[in-house]
Amino acid sequence: GNGAHVPVLIIGTGYGGSVAALRLAQAGVPVHMVEMGMAWDTPGPDGKIFANTRTPDYRSYWLRTRTKQPIVNFLGFPLDKDVPRYTGILDAEDFGEILVYQGRGVGGGSLVNGGMAVTPKRARFSSVLPSVNAAEMYDVYYPRANAELGVNEIDVSWFDSTPAYQYSRVGRKHAQRSNFDFLYVPNVYDFDYMEQEAAGTVPKSALAAEILYGNNHGKKSLQQTYLARAKATGLVTISALHRVTSVSPASGGGYTVVIEQLDTTGGVTATKTVTADRVFFAAGSVGTSKLLVRMRATGKLPNLSGEVGKGWGDNGNVMCGRANHLWDPTGALQSSIPTAGIDNWDDGGAFAEVAPIPTGIETWASFYLSITDTPHRAEFTWNAAAGRVELNWQASWKQVSIDRAKSIFDKINRKEGTIYRTDLFGIYKIWGDHLTYHPLGGAVLGKATDNYGRLHGYPGLYAIDGSLIPGNTTVNPFVTITALAERNIEKIIATDL
Ligand code: FDA
Hints:
The structure is a single chain. The chain is α/β, with parallel strands linked by helices. 25% of the residues lie in helices and 21% in strands. The chain contains eleven helices and 20 strands. It has helices at 15-26, 125-128, 134-149, 156-161, 166-177, 191-199, 226-232, 284-297, 345-348, 398-416, 478-496, and strands spanning 5-11, 31-34, 73-74, 77-78, 90-94, 99-103, 181-184, 236-239, 242-249, 255-262, 268-281, 318-323, 340-344, 350-355, 365-372, 380-383, 388-391, 419-420, 435-436, 461-463. Strands 1, 2, 8, 9, 10, 11 and 20 form a seven-stranded mixed beta sheet that branches. It has a six-stranded antiparallel beta sheet with strand order 7-13-14-15-12-18. A three-stranded mixed beta sheet has the order 5-6-19, with no helix packed on it. Helix 1 (15-26) packs parallel to helix 11. The mean pLDDT is 97. Dihydroflavine-adenine dinucleotide binds next to helix 1, strand 6, strand 9, helix 8 and helix 11. The site of dihydroflavine-adenine dinucleotide has 39 residues, from helix 1, strand 6, strand 9, helix 8 and helix 11.
């Protein structure tokens, strides 16, 4: 409540925040978590908590009146439609030259993401987090993160036989015929559950096109893993629909945190002030960066490092589709959970996920999300006149990522005698290069913070989310965000508390 004092306040309930909450509570420290999105624990009028990807509704988007679907067009038909403005689950945050997709709600990105749980190849780790001891990460923290997140792998014999992964088998065949490394990608979606979906013995989720706006079954989001265990300690409370707007030193020590309570149209219904001995910024790369940059510029936290706001990257995300021959159908039934990848990082700087298009009809399309090695990094800055934080990303910077993704798909197209799809991202537009799902950086480890996420200039303030990672993880990021948070919180508990 208003005027309260808490030992630890955590801003955000995604991966970094959930790891911090569990470990602090296990160490006996009471924790209060503040989350701007909804709790996502109550069914809507259709009896379901989450909306289906094929039928977006009021639950799907964060304070938008029209959907902003990643695939904007299909066979010439625009897909977006009007929806009531609501504190929905997926935020397509527009920074002018890039759309940054993020999860909103208790569980953060784990509510909306594809669940792909990928540990980077160890040889590439020094490029991801140069100041972190790789041996510790691969011996202790990556295994710990994978175990706690409930990461599992698909049974390859089932993969080989189920109609739901026909699209992935076509992806595998084309990758292998062009001599690329093909790999099965682990996931936090329970593959045993998915096999039961296929057998018709349980309610369907992955096999009913649920993904982007939440999964009603099968997926282990943070609500089922870290956050469930954190709540079970009895020491963790979570305020949903509460947004932190300010953090500044309190006169008696600790920090004053200003929090707005929201209604489901985004309106502010109350403003509360609490004090906290320690504050963990776990609002995601964008959320943490925006708060810190604004606090520094507006005199609330003037001593934050000049590095705050810098080192932001898009993990080189770029999407594309390929048009297959009639003898290569990808299937009307497509599991919404991707479980296949093509690794051409060492030769071409690209790692491509074989992704579903779960439309329910045969499309003869292969669809891919590539993660690429791009040198471009943007910076968040405060625009005082406009009263907002801006990001100086340039749309043209995606060309590097397109070129790297082409190292895979031009070769496959040549080998197969196929072409790119031109209908998915606009009319005659091949590349989905207007967005990222993987924002990283803005409070980079060892620059804006020390080597464990302690923010320079303010004892008791920490960054513990994707903002610590300087722009690229070579693969999908949440396992690395989780493992780094495990490493950092262990050190912080041992030495600061
Ligand atoms: P995260 O974004 O998870 O959590 C931050 C939380 O803070 C949010 O809940 C937010 O609402 C809240 N918040 C922000 N500002 C606040 C404020 N001022 N006050 C209160 N709360 C605030 N990764 C992967 O590894 N495999 C995958 O398959 C995918 N797929 C994927 C698909 C889609 C559609 C998206 C959008 C993302 C992915 N990702 C992914 C990316 C992954 O989800 C992402 O990297 C992590 O969720 C980031 O974790 P963090 O802990 O950094 O923040």
